[in-house]
Fold this sequence. Notes:
By secondary structure, the chain is an alpha/beta fold. The chain has 2 domains: about 140 residues, Immunoglobulin-like (Sandwich), CATH 2.60.40.1180; about 375 residues, TIM Barrel. It is about 25% helix and about 25% strand. It is built from 14 helices and 25 strands. The structure holds 2-acetamido-2-deoxy-beta-D-glucopyranose (6 copies). The site of one 2-acetamido-2-deoxy-beta-D-glucopyranose has 2 residues, from loops. One 2-acetamido-2-deoxy-beta-D-glucopyranose (NAG) binds next to loops.
Amino acid sequence: MISLLCLSLLATVAALTVTIPSAPGSGNAPSISRSLVSLSIEQDRWPEWAGTSSENRFFLNTLENLNAITGAPPDIRIGANSEDHTQFSAQVEAPQYADVIFPAPTAIVPYPEALNITVGNAYYQLADHLPKGTHVIWGVNFGSFNLTAAVLEAKAIMNAFYSPPFKAAGVTLDYLEIGNEADLYANNGLRARSYSSSQYVQEWTTFASNISDAVKLNSTGTRFLVGSFAGSSSKTTGFSPQAIYSEGVLDSVPGSLIAAFSEHHYSGSFCTGNGGLLQDLMTKSTIRSNLTIYMTDIIATHEENLDYILGETNSYACHGAPGVSNTAGAALWALDYALFASQIGISKVFFHVGIGFKYSLIQPVALSRSTLDGSPLSSPLPPHIQPPYYAALIACELRGSEKDARIAEIKVDDARIAGYAAFENDRLVRAVFINSQAFFEVNNASRTSVHLDLAFSGTRPRKMTIKRLAIGYADDVSGLTWGGQTYETVDGRVGGKLQLESNLVDYGVDIAETEVVLLSFT
Ligand SMILES: *[C@@H]1O[C@H](CO)[C@@H](O)[C@H](O)[C@H]1NC(C)=O
Ligand SMILES: *[C@@H]1O[C@H](CO)[C@@H](O)[C@H](O)[C@H]1NC(C)=O
Ligand SMILES: *[C@@H]1O[C@H](CO)[C@@H](O)[C@H](O)[C@H]1NC(C)=O
Ligand SMILES: *[C@@H]1O[C@H](CO)[C@@H](O)[C@H](O)[C@H]1NC(C)=O
Ligand SMILES: *[C@@H]1O[C@H](CO)[C@@H](O)[C@H](O)[C@H]1NC(C)=O
Ligand SMILES: *[C@@H]1O[C@H](CO)[C@@H](O)[C@H](O)[C@H]1NC(C)=O
């Protein structure tokens, strides 16, 4: 009894010394893009994200919040599953933008992707609503294997982005994507059962040649990204970057216009959630093992001088597991996931979002049925952010707005605590710690904390401010505060008064179960 009591007391006052690097060091602290945290949007309901006759102010405010922190809005990829179900017709004009046919909602997937979508020029032109400085990736249909349709879509996209309103809006198209998750085509009926990566390379090259000729791509403007695979064999057989490079995808004339490889990744496919599943998602080691599986792919891609991105990612398939993907715990997952990705050569992490999807960072329009089980809501739920949006804010605040910004993982000898240090112009400026022990109401034990004693590899800063992501329980879906402030507001802008603690670095900092602390050194 006594020893058990002592153990539990020890647990509540556990202390841990962490050594924060005082300088980026050689090669250990990669440069971080201002848009490390970016978004992938399911394109069937794109006009509602952008807003049609007027901008969708709520959505744009959530992007502007991030822009104000780093000096650049998140990149936006538009496409995904519905990209391969999109046809083009010049007859579809404003105020219609898109003809969309949806399947019936189900309890598991209350907001399903469209079966068919037909778009016209006006649909693409809505992207000039995005914040100034936004970089975009747009996908064209490859799944239907209709070259005419893909070329028409690419022409409409390029006509929009190279028109005067887009130049004035400062919205640029970095990449055209040709198809979504072609490695699944053999299973989902879009190709023969025998579909292989070499057939993909051959077909991709044909589509890219025609598109490139039709819209006159060159090495200084919009280029191609390739891949967008759902998984990877990481070998030269099966679908992987290694396979398509060895099969010559880069060697053709349009292949020379490929500048990036895009991988898609979900941590798993669970259509119902539970507390154990949420803890698995948040766990430091599973976050790392979900990303390090791509190490050889990343190296192979960098050897070809291409950028490597996670072009579509989020927690669990089925648009997220209820009680898991839509919770505060998922915010801690998303933060550690994006920051760890940056450490292994992934330049940008595009979190997938869709209207009504459980894992969306943002719900940009009012919802009339539950995202969790599809049941009708007694009154519409107005536009709102979901907990993982805080991960985007915190990653941006850690990085800051300087051009020369680097982040290094802090080695923390604890299975539940992750840390990262941020440098501006080689100077240590901030550190973030994440305690991924999931704290639930059902346990209702007193919440433990870990006391972090701060050591430094070089010069020791004297003072710091502490900003906390305060969370009730890991499975809370609202009520989080960041430095005492909330983004659960009518317009998506910050509300409430900023609350920071100031302390001597010598005192260290306590971090509770299911909490994030951001330290800014002065
Ligand atoms: C969707 O489009 C395909 C191909 O264009 C067509 O064959 C099919 O009938 C359409 N489905 C619906 C439900 O309209
Ligand atoms: C594709 O390119 C070939 C060769 O230039 C051309 O003959 C054909 O008409 C093009 N097809 C489409 C759909 O643009
Ligand atoms: C291919 O796309 C074009 C343009 O949208 C359309 O006119 C044509 O019917 C499509 N072909 C097939 C076989 O669906
Ligand atoms: C390259 O292509 C872009 C469109 O992608 C165009 O705006 C630009 O003028 C082109 N540059 C050259 C040098 O041809
Ligand atoms: C990814 O994380 C999930 C937990 O979210 C875990 O079940 C799965 O095994 C992990 N996958 C890999 C490849 O590590
Ligand atoms: C949890 O503990 C608090 C304080 O001890 C108590 O007020 C509350 O009712 C408990 N909640 C549950 C669900 O048991």
